[in-house]
Each structure stands twice: as C-alpha cells, then as structure tokens.
Amino acid sequence: MTTNATLAATTTLAEATSEHTDGYHLVVGALALNDIRTIYGVVGIPITDLARIAQASGMRYIGFRHESDAGHAAAAAGFLTRKPGICLTVSAPGFLNGLVALANATTNCFPMVQISGSSERHIVDLKRGDYEELDQLAAAERFAKAAYRVNRVEDIGRGIARAIRTAVSGRPGGVYLDIPAAVLGEVVDAAAGAASLRRVIDPAPRQLPAPEAVDRAIAMLADAQRPLVVFGKGAAYAQADEQIREFIDTTGLPFLPMSMAKGLLPDNHPQSAAAARSLALRRADVVMLVGARLNWLLGHGEPPQFNPETTFIQVDIEPAELDSNQPIAAPLVGDIGSVMGAFVERIEPGRITAPAVWRQELAARSAQNSAKMTQRLDADPHPMQFHGALRAVRDVLRVHPHAYVVNEGANALDIARNVIDMHVPRHRLDSGTWGVMGIGMGYAIAAAVESGSPVVAIEGDSAFGFSGMELETICRYRLPVVVLVLNNGGVYRGDGVNTASADPSPTTLMCRAHHDRLIEAFGGTGYRATTPAELTAALTDALASGRPALVDCVIDPRDGTESGHLTHLNPTGVGHR
Ligand code: ADP
C-alpha cells in the first residue's frame, strides 16, 4: 500500500464519524486503497454524495454532461494507465447511457469499472414500479466482461477488489458493479468497515510463454521470405515498449502498426511498412500478430487483403482469440512484455533477418506511395479539402510530438490516420474495434486529465455532434484540449440531395455551422479556418495558449466519400448522393 492510498482511505473513513461509517465512504476508501485517483461520472440519485465524499478525500471527480462520455473517458484512462478507469452513473437511464461505453471498452480490451447506484431491490425485483426501476445487473451482464452486485455493505471492499482484478487481469475489459442505494447508505462500525477493504495484490500478473512456443515462432520467422510484424493496440496497452523496440532492432523485421499502435515505434522508423501497407499484407508469407486481432480491421486474415498461403504467429493474452479466424501456426499465449522479452532472450544473433529483396520491395512501394500522398497533401484547392487541412495539422503536430491525438469520423478518421504521424507510444486514441462515433470528447478529456499534456481532437463534424456538449466540461476543468472540427456540413459529405421531399437529405447537417461559437459560450477560444494557413495559425496559437479551444475547419462540402474507407460494407456497395 502506498502512503497516499493509506492516507486517502483513512481520511475518508475518519470523515464519516469516528465510530461509524457508511457505504459511500467505504466505496471511496476501497478505491483509494487500490490507487484510484480519478472518477469520471454524472451525479444524481443515489450517487451524488459519493462524488462529494470522493472529492473530500482528495480524489479527483470529473463531472460530465452525459454518462456515455464519462464512460468513454474512464475507458481511455484504463487504456492509458493500465489501471481500471472508474465511471460513476445513476440508476436506470444513466446506467444505460454508460453501458454503451462499458461495452465499447470491453470490445476494445480496455479496463474500466462502471459503478452504478441502483434502486430498491425488493421493489425492482417484484417490478412494483420504483423510481428509475431496472434490473441493471441483468442488463449489464451481456455487455461487460463481468457484472457483479454488492448486496451488503460489508461486501463493498470485496466487490471493488473483484471488479478491479477482473477488469485488468487476462484480457482487459469493462466490469459492471451494481451498488443499490440502500447499501450505499447503510451505516456500519468504522473499524469493521475499514477492515473489510482490500488492496488487490498484483492485479494483472505476468503470464510467461512456454519456451518451446517461442522457439516454434522463431523457426518460422527464420525460414520466412517475406516476414511482417503487425502491432495492435494490445501491444500499446501492454507498455512493453522496451522489449518491442529491442525485438524490432535485433531482427530488422518490417512492421505495421494498427492505428492505436502508431507511435509505439515512431512512424518514421526505417522498418515501418506503413506506407506500403496493402502490399505488405498481401505479399507477406509469415505474419506475426502482436496484440492485434484478425478481425474485420485486418480483413479476417483472408484474401484479397492477405496471401492465401500466409502462415500466422499470434501473441495474445487471451487463448480463445487464437484460431478465431485463420489457423495460427505458432500460438504464443502470454503478456506481450514477457513474450517479446522471451524472443529477445532466445533469438540467436543473426538467426532472424529480413531478406534484402523483401526490404527493397517494401521500400520501393513506400517511396511510390509517399510521393503520391505528398502530391495530394500539397495540392491547395479552395475551398479547403481534408488533405490540405490535415497537412497543416500534421506540420503543427510535428512540433508537438507529445500532444495526444484523438480521432473519429469517417473521412476525418481515415485520412488523419494516414497523414498524422505519431512518435510516442499510446498517444493516439480513436474509434477502435467497433469503428464507433462518440468517443471524441470523453477520450480527449481523459487524455488531458491523466497526462496533463495537450490534446488535439480531430473530429468529423458529424462525429463531434455525439459528444459536443462536453465542450462545457473541457472549459469547466480548463483542460488543454483543442478540438478541430473538420466541417464539410454532413455525415460523410455535405452535398447530399433529398429528391423526395423538402427535408434535408439523411446525410446533410447544417451547412456552414459555426462550431467555434459553441466553445465561446463556455469561455473557450473559438477559431475559424478556411485555408491550411489559417488552420496552421489557429492550431499553433491554441496549443501555445494551453487553454480550451475549438477550430471550425471549413471543408468543401463535396469532399468526402460515403462510409469513408468502408464503402464495401454498404449493402449496395455504393454511396448515394
Ligand atoms: P487492433 O485493433 O489494434 O488490431 P485489437 O484490439 O484487435 O487491436 O487486439 C488487441 C489484442 O491484444 C486483444 O486480442 C487482447 O487480448 C490483446 N492484449 C491486450 N493486452 C494484452 C497484453 N498485456 N498482453 C498480450 N495481449 C494483450
């Protein structure tokens, strides 16, 4: 137990009364005992006092405008820190709003705990019609890694310990913890209450791979003609940066980062095959997946994205993930730090190399693709288009490599992912495994709160709308977040036409909306940019100020592809205009 945690736990308990305490204080004490320093939430019955008591104990409470944003913030905090992010919600509707984020966290393998107050069990279970009546435990069960309920005040310490252990051990995920109002309010003897709290020891123990499993993978890599390593966000989460760097340096293997693994090794690393991504995946004969799943984001490992002859090595903490799509010839179950460390230890010098012909093939394609990209980025059409705007953002961010980047949208996501280089691990947070919209402000707030560093949220105008009200939260807590709204006036694009009636088309949003004025309502700084030069000036100024800011980037409404890079997932296979 750290001194701070001890102090916090003792203080909160002492605050109740010297002889008695209650469920609220025990929840806060249990979290403090496990080094939880921040709670993200929305208050209301029955958890308002929980937030107050947490603040009084020295813990940070960040209050949101919508539970889903608070939940996304907790999930991002979990990804960034490897400790479960805590989201606090009220009963029934607030709980359900938070559940979206809990499910998203579970899908992304981010550790978080949603703690929700709930209504009277004896009324809810007989469906007698209580205030905010819902069987929350049953509802959460399907969407979380696990769901628990604390029915007795003396079980609060046990419940929180169990939730924390479950969230971070093995494959991380979202855990739901239901605490009925009656349990929160229950008064108990202070000494007995304090004794019931638990500190979880080694919540995510190392999991070492078997040496023969490592040797099997080494033999495959040694025989490969066109080997490729793919890093996913599990590798970023694992914080095994040193072992990963050493593995890549020792072997010389080319690698591809999935979007949230960008920066694990700098995007300008000479072995990065990112600029030749399609060719690298299609031509590789041995692909080693490190904390990346062969899901839709990798075309399920099938042609045309992959060569049908490809053999796979997969490093993952979750054994059931292996063989979920393609047969895995060399499975390595363990935590990424231990597995990559074992590789470095067991590879004989010179045994694994990247054949020169393969390196040259990738380098030639990278040079070709980079030249094409430079041409697109340097064209300066007016009105401004996505590429021109993002070139300006890229150039400013090169001077701020420690700024966190949050990114969501369709075109705004697809293009920014390719254009904005990352140089530092775990500094990019995006739509993730579901390709979800609405994570923007929650992720941005968590990145700023957890790191204290500047955050730049690159948002499509449609995506921004899902969490835009959190601008008030950003301003209230004076967070160094700059929101860039790439505003082309629509979902995908802003030139949709409704030929059936006078209503706007389904993809149309308010053309030429001034999002900059939204943040001004809360005391932040609004900018409007119609050219890359104006965007450069606005972003530079906003980052220098360290204050909340929003830049409305006026993009040509005709620029953008329906469904972005996912047009093939539209049942008709085409975008409508
Ligand atoms: P991406 O979308 O970037 O390809 P995924 O979310 O699909 O990444 O995959 C992440 C994988 O990493 C999951 O299968 C998860 O089980 C795994 N993982 C998470 N943490 C660890 C860890 N510490 N060690 C090993 N594997 C991990």
Category by helix and strand content: alpha/beta
Strand content range: 15-25%
Overall, the morphology is globular
- Contiguous uncertain segments of 5+ residues: 1-14
> In angstroms, what separates the terminal alpha carbons?
60 Å
* Number of structurally distinct domains: 3
What CATH architecture label of the largest domain applies? 3-Layer(aba) Sandwich
Fourth-tier CATH superfamily name of the largest domain: Thiamin diphosphate (ThDP)-binding fold, Pyr/PP domains
Radius of gyration: 25 Å
SS element count, helices: 23
Number of distinct beta strands? 19
Task: Write out the distinct hetero groups bound to the structure.
Answer: adenosine-5'-diphosphate
Can you identify the CATH class of the largest domain?
A: Alpha Beta
Main sheet strand line-up:
3-2-4-5-7-6
Mean pLDDT: 95
Helix proportion? 40-55%
